[in-house]
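new request in #modeling-help
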Amino acid sequence: MPKLRPLPKITRRRSRLHGFGVFAAEPITKNRRIIDYAGELIRNSDSEAREERYNADGAIWVFRLNRVWSRDGYVNGNVARFINHACTSNCWFEIVDKTIWIRASRNIRAGEELTFDYMTVGKRTIPCRCRPGCPNFI
Ligand SMILES: C[S@@+](CC[C@H](N)C(=O)[O-])C[C@H]1O[C@@H](n2cnc3c(N)ncnc32)[C@H](O)[C@@H]1O
Ligand SMILES: [Zn+2]
């Protein structure tokens, strides 16, 4: 059996983008798997009410997997739920069956904040603070 490479070390701390963010604690090479976005698996038809509730608090926790399924990072989630959005991000996500892998989209230095593009579906009400003057909403 080939040895599975351990996932890179990451850490949660305060972010300049918003609240808490997740940061690389070691250099991460392009395309490396970093963490899976954990959370309760729910049907999209059941997620809308939750999303509206979270949205009312200005929060996005539900990750749309496909046309049927979502993961709610607020319920049984892991540290991945604190990864902030950026329009030009250093991570991407890969959906393998019902697992959401967060992967590096370029080489990432130790200490850099991890971000991915939320690709929010539906109402985008939160002004994006990924960079000064970003005109987008997430
Ligand atoms: C999945 S949480 C990320 C963790 C969040 N920073 C926290 O401490 O709870 C998503 C929320 O973070 C905030 N957020 C993430 N990226 C942002 C960005 N680029 N600009 C503004 N707010 C952002 C929004 O409030 C969003 O609803
Ligand atoms: Zn932005």
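bot summary: The two ends are 43 Å apart (CA to CA).
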